[in-house]
């Protein structure tokens, strides 16, 4: 069966579409006024963020503890640049302190209907997504953190030896795959979830075997955290989150010949988003070639941290230019301009991460 390139791209932050963000919150009892006042203080700051179009704060008329914030953005990269910043983490801390639970949802906009949608009043750069994206309902997410230099072997041993949590979360959500890599003292954990990502992450965090591992690595972390303090834990995982910004895959069944790898690209300051966009373009170009060894690629980016998770058929050295995203005239030079240290043809392989564990859920679980 032949598929078009657009059918293979199930996620992309780089198609220029407007973004609608929905934040569902359940507040602690008695914090409604404090939450409202905190929002009042920061809403004008949010309105001045590049790419921000509009914001709405809503309260359920059935349950006063349920709140909703919706915001519209010219494009996903502008929103992600703000939401992944340290400034944002500090901005929303007063809101988070009031919330029992928070569930963010992000949607690109395909169609608008009604008098309230006057395109003439919109920024000229804001546009609609042209066609629906296809996919198998898999959500991808990554976490990253650093450990104290010299502790890498101990951390790798801890992270590779825990018992896998139950894959089934509920009737609608399932943990499909967890892959964990290290590069130097940096740890990257990627997860693939079918269904509700936040429900899956909560499920995993509540499992005794996972909690034991998290406690065991605490002494080795460069950034202190207290998992017994909900606010400390929330801020740690907020800063550790690295969202997926692009995913492309060939339409073929899984094969033992295909192995999972991860590449860490150290972006120069301020170049993380441009680097992720460049790699997404390289992956789309490679997907046009049936002989490409890269069968799927997920790009995760936060600030200047860029990780590319790739499923590759055959050895990496068989086609290193495609594997490392530098295939084509002067593409290695482009990567070199965006990465630090230089990332030319001989250097990209030096950033291949070490696989610690790669776990798939059983077919029926």
Task: Write a concise synopsis of the structure shown.
This is ABM domain-containing protein. The chain has 365 residues and is α+β, with helices and mostly antiparallel strands. It is built from 12 helices and 13 strands.
The largest β sheet comes out as:
9 strands, antiparallel
Rg, please? 21 Å
**SSE-based structural type:** alpha+beta
CATH architecture of the largest domain: 2-Layer Sandwich
InterPro entries: ABM_dom, Dimeric_a/b-barrel, SchA_CurD-like
Pfam family, one: ABM
Protein name: ABM domain-containing protein
Domain ABM: 19-110
Plain-language structure description:
Helices cover 30% and strands 30% of the residues. The protein has 365 residues and is α+β, with helices and mostly antiparallel strands. The chain has three domains: 5-11 and 245-353, 2-Layer Sandwich (Alpha-Beta Plaits), CATH 3.30.70; 18-109, Alpha-Beta Plaits (2-Layer Sandwich), CATH 3.30.70; 138-242, 2-Layer Sandwich (Alpha-Beta Plaits), CATH 3.30.70.1090. Strands 1, 6, 7, 8, 9, 10, 11, 12 and 13 form a nine-stranded antiparallel β-sheet that branches. Strands 3-4-2-5 form a four-stranded antiparallel β-sheet. The longest helix is centred in the N-terminal third of the chain and has 16 residues, at 32-47. The mean pLDDT is 89.
